[in-house]
Amino acid sequence: MQIKQFIGIDVSKETLDLSVVINGNAVSHYCVLNNTRQIKSVVNKIMKTFGSSYEETIFCMEHTGLYNLPLVKWLHANGCKIWLESGVHIKKTLGLVRGKSDKVDSFRIAMFAYTNRHHLKLWVPPRKVVERLGALLSQRQRMMKARKQLATANREQKLFIDKEIMHSLNVYTNRAVSVMDKQVKSIEKEILSLIKEDERLKQMYDIITSVNGIGLIIAVHILVTTNEFLSINDPKKYACYCGVVPFEHTSGSSIRGKNRVSHMANKTIKTLLHLAAVSVIRMPGELQDYYNRKVSEGKNKMCALNAIRNKLILRVFACVNQNRLYEKKYNYKLV
Q1: What angle is formed at CA 145 by the lines to CA 142 and CA 146, rounded to 5 degrees?
Q2: Could you say which DSSP state residue 119 is in?
Q3: Homologous superfamily of 5-119
Q4: How far apart are alpha carbons 310 and 303 in whole angstroms?
Q5: Which is it for strands 81-85 and 246-251: parallel, antiparallel or unpaired?
Q6: pLDDT of 334
Q7: Which terminal Cβ of the chain has fewer Cβ within 10 Å, N or C?
């Protein structure tokens, strides 16, 4: 069915601003509280006012994580078409803009959806178990960050504070760090348990971890960020998402910059892939040989490591798409 109505939604903690665009023209604006009751009321009012159906309407909004959960869940439960887009992407495609308000932002989001309607990307909701895995990963990350802050502060203070005072501080720090270590292990145990209990996740997890250098945390991050390879199933797109693809930087005869990766990336998974690359080049094998060969040819070490990160992504996606474990000693056969 043809899309007739585009609703742009600016999401904040307490309120939602909705702008309705039909045929490229803003026809109405609504501001409601960010709760299920208000969402139901305003959406039904829009449908009744303009004589539209859910099938003819696109609801477009930015990724805001926790704040858009009530809205997204209600829309999905009622069979609405949802388009979740990166805020940076929307901003970059708007061109030169001046001023900012929630009302104006909602209109701009609606116009973004209308202008780019031929590149529509409907949101694919993750399963409950994948949502839970994502929440556990976030909690683990917060624990690791807090642990690092405590440990770093103690190392720095050790250089300047009296030994007796430092001993007292270490007692409290060590206790907190010990508790956090136990909590991190418990989270990892629960993550592994959830994967083993789900047949689909277990199969994908076994395939991903069959690739050298890929462990539990990286594998789960890949499963969550790709939504079990439903949202992203192209290794090149995922490599861009992780920020490991070098792009050319040249213009005319004056700019001849080196190829470099973009800073617009998921820095968490990029860091994990870097650690995996560092780990895998220490293992005897083709990737270690590849790294040593590139370095001996004069290649920058970070460039060679980045190529390893890319190769890991390519291997993971190739195995998942072909539904097979990675073969460490692959025998090529002529067909």
Answers
A1: 85
A2: G
A3: Ribonuclease H-like superfamily/Ribonuclease H (3.30.420.10)
A4: 11
A5: unpaired
A6: 47
A7: C
